[in-house]
Amino acid sequence: MSDADDSQRRLAGDVRYREVWAWSMYDFANSGYTTVVITAVFNAYFVAAVAGKAPWATFAWTAALSVSYLAVLLTAPLVGAWADAHAAKKRLLLLSTVGCVLFTALLYFASPGAVALAIVLVILSNFFFATGENLIAAFLPELATSKAMGRVSGWGWAFGYVGGIVSLGISLAYLMTRPEGTPATETVPVVMLITAAIFALSAAPTFIFLKERAVPQPAEANPWTRVLHTLHEASRFQDLRRFLVTILFYQAGIMAVIALAAIYAQEAMKFTTQQTIILILVVNVTAAIGAFAFGYVQDRIGHIRAMRLVIAGWIVMILLAYLAEGPTLFWVAANLAGLCMGAAQAAGRAIVGYLAPPARLAEFFGLWGLAVKAASIFGPITYGAVTWIFPGNHRLGILAVGAYFIVGLVLLTGINIERGRRAALQPDSM
């Protein structure tokens, strides 16, 4: 055995670092999609070019994302239950990857005025992205010991933000090679092709080296039966249930910031497209640092205390962004958001892994996905509705979603993480 003894305390069973790297490469791969399409480039392009800065443009963008997340919300627990019963996490992950890559590439054809086409392609690509995100997360408890889920989850998220940096950096390099004054209608479609290609290539190691350790459970193959059984036993998983409700709120704020960061930068702070891309690049660096470092902090100080610290950081960030009148304070707010975003994503995934029954990981990460995607519906849509009701008031929009972080902070009270872990390890009566 070539790995050091210390590594064996971090990784579970026969897991080696190469497999954890391959698992992390999926975070690297899919982050290009969320960074370029959802956060930095295509969202602002949709509002400014595809929809022609119509008063309803921001609302239409958030509505499209909400529809895709609603589809995930309705299917995630069933997809997870089916994956557990058939030991098919990896097969379904491949299907979701192909779907996201294909529909991202087709965004090449979302030209000015093609609002309906752009909305359909965003809904489909984001649906497959989010489904894959749930499935890859379900591998975490198979890779890490219970005492190291925070740091291993942090490794994955940190790799993911590096992937976002790479995709955005290559996109920026392409934009800088174009003659000055080249319209976005000529460059952004090519950026969509670049993003799809990077996703496909970077995900390849995941499918080569990551193992499917689950055992098929043919007697439990009906996903409806499994989900109904889980709901029937909800009282047994009271701490996980409360944490999923907590996710519903704090994640609403996070998803609003992710989905609307470029729009806020350009509309409220008057950043150019290249300035916005540079901002998102730097924020991805701080997010990678936050994800990697905070995983160790979480394992040291405890899951709930760590999450409380992160949500408090988000509240401070919202206030700074609201108060920012010039680029300096906004840059501070944006980088604080990066640190907190990386930390929150890694911490939340690790907590769900700690509280999920080992034999039903995909199903319970489907419930995690349900909570995240439900939050993704009403978080961005709240921002979009505020900017529609109060035309152009993006500052009020960002302040409105800050309320979700306050509710999330309050809901953390009462969660007993070790009680929840004991419940997860009890024999399943199914």
Provide structural commentary.
This protein has helices at 5-10, 17-40, 42-50, 57-86, 89-105, 115-137, 140-143, 149-177, 184-209, 223-232, 238-267, 273-301, 303-323, 327-355, 361-389, 394-411, 417-425. By secondary structure, it is mainly α. It has one domain: MFS general substrate transporter like domains (Growth Hormone, Chain: A). Mean pLDDT is 84; it is low at 1-8.
CATH superfamily: MFS general substrate transporter like domains
Strand content: under 5%
**Please, what is the oligomeric state?**
single chain
CATH architecture: Up-down Bundle
**How many strands appear in the DSSP assignment?**
0
Helix content: over 70%
**Spans of at least 5 consecutive residues with low confidence:** 1-8
Q: Please count the helical segments.
A: 17
**Distance N terminus to C terminus?**
37 Å
Q: Strand count, sense and closure of the main sheet? A: none
How many distinct domains? 1
* Top CATH class: Mainly Alpha
